Amino acid sequence: MSAPHAQTTPGSRVPGTRDLVGIGFGPANLALAIAIEEHNAQRTSGEAVHATFVERQEGFGWHRGMLLEGATMQVSFLKDLVTMRNPGSPYSFVHYLQDRGRLADFVNHKTFFPTRIEFHDYFRWCAAAFRDQVRYGAEVASVTAAGPTAGLDPADPANPADLADLADSPGTVDELAVTTRGADGAATLRARNVVIGTGLEPRLPAGIETGERIWHNRDLLHCAPGLTVRPHRRFLVVGAGQSAAETADYLHRTFPDAEVCAVFRRYGYSPADDSPFANRIFDPAAVDAFYDAPQEVKHQLLGYHANTNYSVVDGDLIEQLYRTAYQEKVSGTERLRIMGASEFTAVTPIGNGVRATVRSLTGGETLALDCDAVVLATGYRPTDPLELLGELAGECRTDGQGRLRVGRDHRVETTGRLRAGIYLQGAATEHTHGITSSLLSTLAVRSGEIRDALLLRGTERELRRVPAGAGVGAGAAAGPGTAPAVPASRG
Question: Which sign, positive or negative, has the C-alpha torsion 59, 64, 69, 73?
Fold first, then answer.
């Protein structure tokens, strides 16, 4: 899906009002910032889209705690922030390589999969161009109505599906107030739209909390190097996915005097399905097919292809870990213990360490292991957008399972009273847009879709302001000061 060709004018707005405020500035909203810049580069300053982003980190960072030496991306470098939408963009990974003086070297490397460290540097290289648009070190405290406008005439055909809501509405909300808190105190940003791209939060086993010696794997590189007191010479890693396998490998290499116990319910690590036909689930066109599919088909597709992304490991890493475990058996010194068909049940602090309890799923026996640290590579879950929206959450429509209803353009469906736009990026839309929602694969295309949706909504807003009888024909639409048509993000 791509937005129809749109026209936009700045229109009248409260001084200081942004066209959008992006909440979070990870790869998703960074891609959106680039897509907006592409639009603005072809417009006058009065026709530009005005955007500000809010990021709680002090600077750009993407999974810093898992930037392990040698770990590679699991998506092609062509699925960067722009190429799938605009191969000629100056923000492509190829342009980054050229700027860094490594283009020929990368070509000679003969790989589609750069290291995670290099791709993070690419993201930072892109983000540096938008530092003036980002408020780093600030967290969004609330999103509220920025003062309702006059009531909307129910005869207005702009949103006929919501006429029942509008008839009883004392007014509509056309703008939002985004309140932030940071080192410099509180501030409020006024916006016509918000784009929520707050990423993922760690998923922990029930009843388990992180601490000095209990970490989620996202903090691995922040915590492990400082672990100087290690009387037990043992680590426990919980989880069966890529991050768990990488964590076990990292600890085994970094602490050559320590035992590393990998615990998971499966009998062994399962390989990721990265075969060509299965990889089509990550194509932009697959988002269209998934969105239009019946609910039961959506559920089936997520189940069929979960092994492309969830609780699976790159085949080469599986082979490497197996080879390591086998060679240690041959030498008689086994430091890598693969404890399959087992579950981690409890952990308690002890002197300079923790005691973890592991239960065999096949025999039922339990084992207590005294460890220097337990690393929980137990995955992530999407942040809940409704927590940010406060009272506005009541204006957001949900399906029969309490999940947000989201349009194909990534806009949350709302009652007619809330006319300001709320757009979602990330895993919170997996139930509507499919398995790519939390991944990098469709960022380039999705950012163009959201940009075009913002422009189209802006055009509709301007048309509503045209006085009755003034005429909105082709001549009026193409009058002085009106921007030319915006190219669709995807054909």
Answer: negative
As a residue count, the chain comes to 491
- Please give the chain's pLDDT, 491 residues, in tens: 333 333 333 334 455 899 999 999 999 999 999 999 999 999 988 889 999 999 999 999 999 999 999 999 999 999 999 999 999 999 999 999 999 999 999 999 999 999 999 999 999 999 999 999 999 999 999 999 996 433 233 333 333 344 333 333 457 899 999 999 998 899 999 999 999 999 999 999 999 999 999 999 999 999 999 999 999 999 999 999 999 999 999 999 999 999 999 999 999 999 999 999 999 999 999 999 999 999 999 999 999 999 999 999 999 999 999 999 999 999 999 999 999 999 999 999 998 999 999 999 999 999 999 999 999 999 999 999 999 999 999 999 999 899 999 999 999 999 999 999 999 999 999 999 999 999 999 999 999 999 999 999 887 777 666 565 554 443 333 333 333 333 333 33
Residue 94 DSSP symbol: H
CA 427 to chain centre: 6
417/392 Cα distance (integer angstroms): 10
Torsion of CA 262, 268, 274, 278, to 10 degrees: -130
| Residue 214 near residue 373 (C-beta atoms within 8 A) | yes
DSSP code of residue 284: H
pTM of the entire structure?
0.87
* CA 78 centroid distance within chain: 18
